[in-house]
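Retro notes (design track)

What went well: tokenization of the new backbones is finally stable.
What didn't: we kept losing track of which sequence belonged to which structure.
Fix going forward: every design gets posted as structure first, then sequence, in one message. First example under the new rule, 191 residues:
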């Protein structure tokens, strides 16, 4: 059966979080841009009681995918072209991992340290504190790792920069945080 584009576009999707992600990062600026740049950044995930049975057997995996909602990202259509953290040229948002996108969904392959009841302890976190968690999947090298011949504009990029700046923050909150930083007060990491 062929479903038309117009019909597919009519879908309004309702997502409900299965839990919340905790991390030391309170604002985007200064937060690692990917798990690979987040060595040692520890965090946790609290799962809502209704979903805890689904955690069975997860502790056998070293790494898990967290799929989540960038709850501090604000998308508007002008953001279909963005300047990614690792470049200074404008790129189509779907060719980037920018948080401001039509559906503000993030995915991170984090290290799973332990599972205790409804709490997961994780490392290599590039996610803000309080982020709503949509799903968890095991990271499986046989499924998720491919040798590729091409990697677009990222082809020859090294992970030269490790943390985000203000680029994807709302102007007013960026201004507020910038002022805090310039005044010498802690603006990101929880103490
Ligand atoms: C470049 S994105 C990559 C996230 C994920 N690994 C991905 O590829 O989808 C990581 C940046 O998103 C921002 N970020 C993380 N959690 C966020 C949230 N809940 N709302 C808005 N921005 C967030 C932070 O600035 C962080 O440095």
């Amino acid at each position: 059966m062929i479903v038309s584009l117009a019909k597919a576009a009519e879908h309004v999707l309702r997502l409900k979080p299965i839990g919340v992600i905790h991390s030391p990062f309170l604002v985007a600026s200064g937060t690692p841009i990917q798990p690979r740049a987040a060595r040692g950044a520890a965090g946790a995930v609290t799962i809502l009681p209704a979903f805890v049975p689904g955690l069975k057997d997860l502790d056998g995996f070293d790494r898990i995918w967290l799929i989540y909602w960038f709850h501090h990202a604000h998308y508007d259509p002008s953001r279909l072209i963005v300047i990614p953290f690792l470049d200074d040229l404008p790129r189509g948002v779907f060719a980037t991992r920018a948080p401001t996108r039509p559906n503000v969904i993030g995915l991170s392959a984090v290290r799973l340290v332990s599972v205790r009841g409804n709490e997961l302890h994780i490392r290599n976190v590039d996610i803000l504190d309080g982020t709503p968690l949509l799903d968890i999947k095991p990271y499986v090298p046989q499924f998720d790792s491919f040798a590729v011949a091409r990697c677009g504009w990222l082809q020859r990029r090294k992970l030269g920069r490790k943390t985000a700046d203000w680029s994807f923050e709302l102007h007013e909150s960026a201004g507020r945080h910038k002022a805090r930083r310039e005044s010498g007060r802690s603006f990101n990491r929880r103490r």
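Added context from the reviewer: Residues 28, 31-34, 70-73, 85, 97, 99, 106-108, 126-128, 131, 164 surround S-adenosylmethionine (CB under 6 Å).
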